[in-house]
Task: structure prediction
Amino acid sequence: MLIHVVRAIFGVCIILGICYLLSSNKKAIKWRIIISGLLLQVVLAFAAIKVPFVTRFFKSIVDIFLIVISASEQSAAFLFGDLAKTGPFGFAFSALPVIILFSALTSIAYYYGQLQKVVYWFAWLMNKTMKLSGTESLAAAANVFIGQTEAPLVVKPYLERMTRSEIMTIMTGGMATIAGSVFGVYVSILGDGDMAAKQEFGIHLLIASLISAPAALLIAKMLVPEKEDHKINQSLDVPKSEVGSNALDALTRGTSEGVKLAVNVGAMLFSFMAIIYLSNSLLEMLGNQLSINDNIQGLTGGKYDQLSLQLFLGYLFAPLAWVIGIASDEILYIGQLLGEKIILNEFVAYSSLGDMKRSGIVSERSIIIAAYALCGFANFASVGIQIGGISSIAPKTRKNLTELGFKALVGGTLATMLTGCIAGALI
Result:
């Protein structure tokens, strides 16, 4: 246990050191915000993982999510029959429909004002402990529940008056957390049909997205600190948003949005997986021509048997895997996952993690740490999604969005790594 804590502290120092080196204004960094944000993350993580009654609370929330997932699976079986069962079509006809149901339920919860209350109180907690602006805190809290494309709508009236640093916090928060609508998909992938496993990973993913919110805020405030003369408005006000004229309208709107998201996720997976298969075929051909495929197995200790995209990603991102506390003999595998998430997307990475879990090639501890570290939207596609989505509702922010896009990608990646470090110390 002690060695894991030491590794985690070392990893946190490395991550914060990277943020300091990349900071746009090192002298303007407010260390009180950084320390309070880190303490808030540690306290939330410790309470959620180690304090029994808090863990039971999270378990009860996940149990509700699992009921929703079960209802979605039964509905998919009714609609698609055998296609919704495990097999070659299982993901498309069983997992993706979960997105539609979660989107519909989220819309109803927003219509009745319940989701706004949850967002408000979580924002209040970060607002009071980190002393950030109300808009930053609200956007960060909203990202945990409704995702990077919908969260900016919560602070839409304030977007064009927000500073460069505040825009950075919104973008980084979107990169570092996941939406409730895709939560069920990740649980289904990692649970692999086992209810106990779904419950376990559901709890971990829920905690991961929750504690990544303060991590995103503190890292954003290191990368792009607020100007010294800026007066922070800490008032919290959740503006009203039109989600439907009645509950039925909200349900249909949420369902329509869920269909769009599910189709988009399926299309992205198709495209990115095709790129992986194509790249691996070309690399295998190159390896055969250069007569190096036969040596790959020996050079990688049996982890890979030919040139592949996964091999390159593993070596490229292995140092990041080591930083978050992964054992040295497994950093190639987890480095591969981190690379897949950043360069492709988290759906591909979680699919690969599910494969590794089934094959037993990595330890249970590494699987759980990876689940935390992958729990975010930090990938290249998200840069375009954020620029397009936020600038469409606040055109004056476009210059800041385009200039900060890749920095927010780095920030979101470092935030989820920070979450992985802290989880590694407690597991």
Notes: The chain has 18 helices and no strands.
